[in-house]
Amino acid sequence: MRIGIDARFFGPIGKGLGRYTQKLIENLEKVDNSNQYFIFLKKENFEDYQPKNKNFQRVLADYRWYTFAEQIKFPRLLEKYKLDLTHFPHFNVPLLYKRKFIVTIHDLILVHFPTTKSSTLAPAFYWLKFFAYKIVISSAINRAQKIIAVSNFTKNDILKTYPKIKSEKIKVTYESAEDFCLFTPHYKYDEILARYGIIKPYILYVGNAYPHKNLERLILSFREIRKAEKNLNLVLVGKEDYFYRRLKNFSIKQKIAGIIFTDYISDHEMDAVFRSSSAFVWPTLYEGFGLPPLEAMSKGVPVVSSDQECMKEILSDSTYYFDGKNTADMAGSVIKVLNNEDLQKTLIQKGYERVTHYSWKKMAKETIKLYFKI
Predict the structure, then answer these.
(1) Rounded distance, CA 167 to CA 159, Å?
(2) 20 to 30 Å CA-CA from 83: which of 67, 234, 253, 326?
(3) Whole-angstrom Cα distance, residue 369 to residue 247?
């Protein structure tokens, strides 16, 4: 088969979606030597991917996401390669693309959180773009030969939101944290922390600052946490953008001491940041999978998470849960974990066990099986 993969989100530029795309391709290289793959990349990540399997070929597709070029020019490029199947790891499938394809749906955040607070656009332009998103998402879900969902939560969400879709059209393939095993020598920890202005002890959050991540409530709850843990800091790791700058302004207005914004930190340096933390806090209100808590668990860090349905599916009993909309409950849960060594040890042990349930290689094998069913 001639298989195309839209890898324009490949690597760090695509954040969580970029990691999924990268790990999918890297593991397909390891387990598939029969099909021929064409990997479509943007100019900015073209050199990030270096094929290690002779059946994998890079193709430059320098079309920005959610643009007219994506809708008009990208389908023409795909057509040139006479693909038997194309895998789109995100919902932004060009409306004009008529060949067979599979789409991965990570979540329906854009459908469930239609708020101008989630965008840098003026309200009128935001709602116009939101309407366009809904058309593209619906088109991708309805036209795809198969849909990959990254959790049962996402699968059920798709079925509820698009009732005409049959359950058998959707296959759940979990993501993984199995290779988050970069190790930094312990003697370098303090050097790395100092580079980003991180002061111990601290609790940690890693991810973007979109509204559904619920970081404003985390900051408000930290006010109460710090009353009980006077020297504790809150470290927020994520590439600075409009949403992080807005969150930083919010924290300044609240006049809460001990909040540290680090901007982007590489995976290698994150090993030290994770392992030096006292706990990882995940306050999300909506998630399709949620990789950072698993990454924290793989580093031996106790995780405190919102009781959002998807997180209970992915993390099971390896986490101490709180009500994400209740700042008092959030604060109380973090304080309880920080002050209970037995609970910490239990969460750490269960965390180590939980991450073994997930494998990128297994995900790739399940994806190949789906390719052959088309």
Answers:
(1) 7
(2) 67
(3) 43
Structure tokens, 362: 């297994």
Q: Which domain holds residue 114?
A: 2-176+359-372
Bridge partners of 103, per DSSP, are: 88, 147
Structural domain includes residue 181: no
3-class DSSP assignment, residue 164: coil
Instruction: Give CA–CA dist 374/372, Å, rounded.
Output: 5
Do 30 and 65 sit in the same domain of this protein? yes
Euclidean distance between CA atoms 127 and 172, whole angstroms:
31
- Contact between 232 and 226 under an 8 Å Cβ cutoff? The reply is yes
* pLDDT (tens place) for every residue of the chain, 374 residues total: 999 999 999 987 767 899 999 999 999 999 999 999 999 999 999 999 999 999 999 999 999 998 999 999 999 999 999 999 999 999 999 999 999 999 999 999 888 876 545 555 566 666 677 788 889 999 999 999 999 999 999 999 999 999 999 999 999 999 998 554 556 777 789 999 999 999 999 999 999 999 999 999 999 999 999 999 999 999 999 999 999 999 999 999 999 999 999 999 988 899 999 999 999 999 999 999 999 999 999 999 999 999 999 999 999 999 999 999 999 999 999 999 999 999 999 999 999 999 999 999 999 999 999 999 88
CATH number of the domain to which 269 belongs: 3.40.50.2000
Total domains in the fold of the chain? 2
Q: Provide the whole-model pTM.
A: 0.90
In a domain, 149, yes or no: yes
Kindly state whether residues 152 and 103 are assigned to the same domain: yes
DSSP string across 220-287: HHHHHHHHHSTT-EEEEES---HHHHHHHHHHHHHT-TTEEE-----HHHHHHHHHT-SEEEE--S--
Q: What is the DSSP string of 327-373?
A: HHHHHHHHHHHHT-HHHHHHHHHHHHHHHTT--HHHHHHHHHHHHHT
